[in-house]
Structures are given as C-alpha cells and as structure tokens.
Amino acid sequence: MELYMPRTVIISGASKGIGKETARVFAAAGDQVVVFDVDREKGEGFCREEKAAGRKVDFSAVDITNTENVRSAVEKAANQYGGVDVLVNCAGILDLHSFSETTEEVWDRVMGINLKGAFLLSQAVLPFMSKNKSGRIINIASSAGRTGGVKTGVSYSVSKAGIIGLTKTLARMAAPDKVTVNCIAPGTTNTDMARQFSSEDTEAILRQVPLHSLVEPEDIARAVYFLASDSAKMITGICLDINGGIYMG
Predict the structure, then answer these.
(1) pLDDT for 179-188, tens place per residue?
(2) Which pLDDT score is estimated for 195?
(3) Which of 90, 162, 180, 206 could form a disulfide bond with 19, CB atoms 3.0-4.6 angstroms apart?
(4) Is 3 within the bounds of a domain?
C-alpha cells in the first residue's frame, strides 16, 4: 500500500458551511489546508480548533474579488508550502431578489464573489499546477445553475451557471498539463445560507426534492475529496449533481 502524500489545499469561503466541512475532511486526511476568507474572526477561530486537534489548517484574509489580493495570497501559500495541489472554489453568497428587483449593484456583487472570485483564484493557482503537471480544481456550483433555481434570485442562478461553464472551459484548457477541473452542483444544503429562506420557501423547495431532504455539508465535502483524489484522475469537466433528485440531468 502506497504512503499517503499530504497535499497543499486552498479552500475559499471555508470559515463556515460547505467550505468549512470540506476543510475538515482534507485536514483530517493529513493535508495542509489554507483557508481563504474575508471573515477573519470565524476563519481564525476555525483554524485554532483544527490546530488544537493536531491538524494543519492556516488562515489567510483574502478578498477574492481583488486581483492583487488573490495573486499575493496564492503566491505566499505556494512559496510557504511548496506549491498548490488542490483548489476548492467554495466562496459564495445567496441572493433572493426577483428579476425586476435586481439592481446593478446586487448583480455585480453576486457575480464578483460567486463567479469572478473563482476565475481569479483559478487563474492564480493554475501556473503552479501546470508547472508540476498535476493539480485539482473543484468548483462549487448549485442546482440553481442547472434549473434556474426554485426560490433563488436571478443573479445567483446565473452566477452558478457561469461556474459550470468556467469548469468546462478550464478543464479542456488545463488537461494537457494533467490538471483536472470539475464542479459540484449541490441542491439546497443545510447551512446558514439556506436558513435565509423562509420556512415556507424551504418547504416549497423540499416538495420538489424526491428524497425530501436537504443536502448536508458533509455530502458535498466527501464528493470534493473524491474529485481531488487519485481515484478521480480520469474525471474532468463534469458537473456532479448532489441534490436529492431535484435535477436529474
């Protein structure tokens, strides 16, 4: 049996929700995890918890919509830990505005965090992965990007559809350098983000889910870990749907 080789894993938006659970899974496996987040208090608190458990998790305050901030943070992590092996683009915000109520400011903010951030981070890490002829990029999309959403706003659904498109474009482009790029489209997940829905809206969503249950963060985290593993070395350009059956593409 081969010895496990720890990897350097950057995860954006890992101070809570899916990102936090994903960071736990990688750290528990022995990987060096670097949390990129704007929430310093929650991010550093999470890192302290993990370090107390003997795991390697560090925090970096990063505004993923700022090009220079992203490039500087990625370069620092790559230099400190000897490269970047895995990037998980998990940072995102929910928007519930209707089409007519969506302002340009709302649109730009959601697109900036949900789509531009993933683009900038991928652009920053790819040279390090390409140089090593190895790497994994996993993007977190949403079933809203597949279906248009049940109760989500237009900017959210479009940003997540953009993540799926970004994934496929990057997968084709990065393949010659043995870098795989995939995404996961979760259904409504049991996180603080989903709790922005009213109880009536949540029930309306669940009525459309054949398994009639919310997705749990660990469901997504385990799938991310699989896509980053050697077992998934021939998987690239896919969008893995984990949604209880609300979308069966």
Answers:
(1) 999 999 998 8
(2) 80
(3) 90
(4) no
Q: Specify the pLDDT at position 12.
A: 98
Which CATH number do you get for residue 199? 3.40.50.720
Q: What is the distance between the alpha carbons of residues 187 and 220, in angstroms, rounded to a whole number? A: 10
pLDDT value at 2 more than 70: no
- Percentage, residues of the chain above pLDDT 70: 98
156 noted as active-site residue: yes
* Catalytic entry in 4, 81, 156, 247: 156
On whether the CB atoms of residues 18 and 90 are closer than 8 A, the answer is yes
- Residue 245 maps to a domain: no
